[in-house]
Amino acid sequence: MVCTFVLFWLCWWRFTGVFGESLSVTEGDSVLLQNNVATIHEDDDILWNFGAENSLIAQINSPNQFFPDERFRDRLKLDRQTGSLIITNITTQHTGRYKLEINGKKQSTKTFSVSVFAHLPIPKITRDFSQNSSSSYCSLLCSVVNVGHVTLSWYKGNSLLSSISVSDLSISLSLPLEVEYQDKNSYSCVINNPIRNQTTHLNITQLCQTHLDQGPPLVYIVLLSAAGSLLIVAAVLMYCICKKLTKTVQTQEEDITDSALCKPTTGKAKSKSNAVYENVPKK
Ligand SMILES: *[C@@H]1O[C@H](CO)[C@@H](O)[C@H](O)[C@H]1NC(C)=O
Ligand SMILES: *[C@@H]1O[C@H](CO)[C@@H](O)[C@H](O)[C@H]1NC(C)=O
Ligand SMILES: *[C@@H]1O[C@H](CO)[C@@H](O)[C@H](O)[C@H]1NC(C)=O
Ligand SMILES: *[C@@H]1O[C@H](CO)[C@@H](O)[C@H](O)[C@H]1NC(C)=O
């Protein structure tokens, strides 16, 4: 009897009382805070307040509209007919309590509790090379960066293996998993907040294959040989250019290019070069 009463009271409190209407949205969404408490008359004064400090963010004072709060710049639209407020491109900073106040022949109020959740990143699964490698197990990490108010979990099929939650804003999370190389189960890493989730499926063959262990050295070898070839090509090119320049100096007396890297080396060319410099008037 007492229990039923408490339950009833809690429900009533939850849906009509202190918290008003609750909305959970993702940043970037457009949110409609709908007036369903009173019909609006021509000369009603409609006020929308936000936050614990109850600061004015929108007002219709017939026939004018005001949006005095910088935090909502260009994001608010007031519906003159209904008194409803539309917040466009909402951000996490706009999480909080919104209060509608209609002052006319009679006064009505309604509150909304709006929770704005950040977009969920896609979890990234990587091989964890910092763990001791063993012949039959493969160590993995599922990671996300810059998250808040989320849970990160490993699932084997539909059953939860492990999870980690964070309530702070903007931190990085990672969750380890060890699998056998031969494991044929399907594993997935899931990030979720109260309204959304994102899943990445593990591909054991792709991440744990042993030939991938020798991956990094192979990449280095390829890179090194590529760099080596480039150097050789550059050297050959340089040599050719030098040779050509030297020839030019020898044959065309008027057209001498003075290159710091590649001076003509024959005595004849040098003397001609000097001669040209001597003709330049000194200041
Ligand atoms: C939405 O808001 C964000 C952050 O203020 C801004 O970077 C972005 O350009 C806005 N998008 C639109 C479509 O207005
Ligand atoms: C790796 O193994 C060594 C000894 O076998 C141990 O001291 C060390 O803590 C292990 N490291 C990890 C990351 O498990
Ligand atoms: C992820 O969200 C979908 C609906 O969007 C739901 O069907 C599914 O059960 C959720 N998965 C998890 C692991 O929460
Ligand atoms: C896993 O990766 C391998 C190798 O990259 C690929 O051949 C295979 O199709 C992938 N399996 C799944 C289920 O995506």
TrEMBL record:
InterPro entries: Ig-like_dom, Ig-like_dom_sf, Ig-like_fold, Ig_sub, Ig_V-set
Alphabetical UniProt keywords: Membrane, Signal, Transmembrane, Transmembrane helix
Source superkingdom: Eukaryota
Domain Ig-like: 123-205
Residues spanning the signal sequence: 1-20
Membrane-spanning ranges: 218-242
Gene3D superfamilies: Immunoglobulins
Name the record gives this protein: Ig-like domain-containing protein
High-level lineage: Eukaryota, Metazoa, Chordata, Craniata, Vertebrata
